[in-house]
Design brief:
The chain has 334 residues and is of the alpha/beta class. It has eleven helices and 13 strands. Strands 1-7-6-4-5 form a five-stranded mixed sheet, with helices on both faces.
């Protein structure tokens, strides 16, 4: 049995190529001559200026592998289990974790953990449980989000623009976290809570590859009720965060970093205000990187470390938000 589970390695891969929001709008207008799209509308509504775009011949596994190589360079050693934790996937079968392990030359057991934009934080939850119970000692949690393949560029009608809108600000990225057993009871994952309001599952979907619309070519694009998703998260409100902090004995002032999943810039200030989060303890990633799904929280952790906001012994609160809908909370001592 392990006293705790600590983060031993961290990697984030951002593709070199970027697509500006202005370029996105120009392409939409070129491919849909009848679309009346005000110049700058997307950036004004979301605050997103650009997104990263992976090469055409890269798969979700390639993004995960690139990030994993960084994490393994930072924390060399055997890996006992590989978890692929992403909204994206290479294939329906087999599990993408097999492909990641093969590309890394690993022979460890594998499995996929999938829960939309909360996939990484849920993967960390699973790894923590398996490490604490002694089944594994070092687990690689890897994500590859290639959302660019699900952007709807050609609209059959102007009415498709609004439900397709979230896809235009989603970017590609890879992320990896190595979790390992620690004898230090004060290190690593200190507390976690997870919640779901699954009656709202239909507010955001990407049906392609599932059994509902197996052969429907129109099912491979993002379809989201943005207003409905916002209402659903507002229904949850700050109470789960406040309750977890009460139960675990922390306050917002205890955290050196509060990392939160980011979909659009205008939503963040009200959320931070309601939670009592100081602006100097957060990192805004959505403007320069867009919504990178489950890679968002690892990116904020890495940027905070690179900027000197956190270091060994720092305390971070991870807040994951995902379609479905679900909320994940995790307190980590770095």
């Amino acid at each position: 049995m392990s006293a705790s589970t600590r983060i031993a390695g961290l990697g984030v891969h951002l593709p070199q190529a970027v697509r500006s929001t202005a370029e996105t709008e120009r392409r939409l207008k070129a491919e849909n001559p009848g679309l009346r799209l005000a110049t700058g509308l997307i950036s004004r509504m979301t605050g997103v200026e650009q997104v990263h775009v992976a090469p055409d011949d890269w798969q979700a596994s390639d993004l995960a592998v690139a990030a994993s190589r960084q994490a393994l360079a930072e924390s060399p050693g055997d890996i006992d289990l590989v978890l692929f934790t992403s909204a994206a996937q290479d294939l329906v079968e087999p599990a993408t974790s097999h492909i990641v392990a093969a590309k890394l030359g690993l022979t460890a057991p594998v499995m996929d953990v999938k829960n939309a934009c909360n996939s990484v934080i849920n993967g960390m939850q699973v790894a923590d449980a398996l490490i604490r119970t002694g089944q594994y000692r070092r687990v690689l949690v890897a994500s590859g989000e290639k959302t660019s393949v699900s952007v709807r560029w050609r609209l059959s009608a102007a009415s498709q623009f609004v439900p397709s809108f979230p896809g235009y600000v989603m970017g590609d990225a890879g992320a990896a976290v190595i979790l390992e057993a620690s004898d230090d009871p004060d290190a690593g994952i200190r507390a976690s809570r997870f919640f779901a309001e699954s009656q709202h599952w239909a507010v955001g979907t990407l049906p392609g590859g599932g059994t509902m619309r197996t052969h429907d070519p129109d099912a491979y694009y993002f379809h989201m009720d943005g207003a409905g998703l916002q209402r659903a998260f507002l229904e949850i409100g700050p109470e789960p965060v406040e309750r977890m902090l009460r139960d675990s004995g922390y306050t917002m002032d205890d955290f050196d970093l509060v990392a939160i999943h980011q979909v659009a810039l205008p939503y963040l200030a009200p959320v931070f205000e309601r939670l009592g989060v100081r602006s100097d303890r957060t990192i805004i990633t959505v403007a320069e990187h867009g919504n990178i799904a489950s890679a968002t929280l690892p990116l904020q952790l890495r940027l905070a470390r690179d900027r000197g906001m956190v270091g060994p012994g720092s305390l971070a609160l991870l807040i994951g938000l995902a379609g479905g809908i679900s909320l994940g909370l995790m307190v980590v001592r770095l």
